[in-house]
Amino acid sequence: MNNFAEIILIEKLRKVTYYSISINNEEALYDKFLEKHKVENKEKLYHILAWIEKLGNKIGAEKFYFRNEAETSDASALPPSGIDKEPVYVEFDEETGIGVNQPNNLRLYCLRANDSVVFLFNGDIKTTLKAQDCPNVKPHFKLANKLATLLNQAFADKEIKWIEDFTDISVEDDFRLEWDF
Q: CA-CA distance, 118 to 60, in Å (whole number)?
């Protein structure tokens, strides 16, 4: 079965422009991620959204802030690894009411094209050490890697072009990524 994907602009912030992908005319992958986790994992989602905002407006999409979930992966993930990076994810102890920095196991898979352009895909709660072993994130991780490979090839083939200062991209209106599942 052939699949096709379109690039969807999500948001242009001061330092980063965020895109997502719509597969076979469905809702953008990032929108699906937001819809699912805004109820189920609201605090974890807000932590990731805070990172998207901070990277987009203050820092830029520096490689340091993107989580590498496999050595041979083209895709990466948010939030960054480590609990010491701001903004932190805090869980409150119900007995004491005290907040404690915790790792956020919600993953949003993405392609960091450069310091100014990021493609946001989908993700879920990671329950195992390796993404490829987790029943929740494995399908999102695999799809993110497939899309990242296709996008990287489209950049190499100049089907996706950088604008002069490499702060955004340009694609023809009828541009589609195509692949077989």
A: 10
Instruction: Name the H helices within 60-161.
Output: 138-156
Segment 60-83 mean pLDDT? 88
Give the predicted TM-score (pTM) of the model.
0.91
Instruction: Report the alpha-carbon distance of residue 19 to residue 117 in Å, rounded.
Output: 8
The residue among 85, 74, 87 whose CA lies nearest residue 141 is 74
The counts of H helices and E strands in the chain are 3, 10
What are 101-151's pLDDT values in tens digits?
A: 778 899 999 999 999 999 999 999 999 999 999 999 999 999 999 999 999
Angle (nearest 5°) at CA 82 between 90 and 62? 110
The residue range of the domain holding 7 is: 2-180
47-56, 75-84, 129-138: which has the minimum mean pLDDT? 75-84
Helix axes 42-54, 29-40, angle to 10 degrees: 130
Pairing of strands 17-23, 117-120: parallel
Calculate ∠ Cα 136-114-46, nearest 5°. 45
- Report the DSSP beta bridge partners of residue 6: 22
Q: How far apart are CA 111 and CA 104, in angstroms?
A: 19
Q: Which helix (H) or strand (E) holds 65?
A: none
Total domain count, the chain: 1
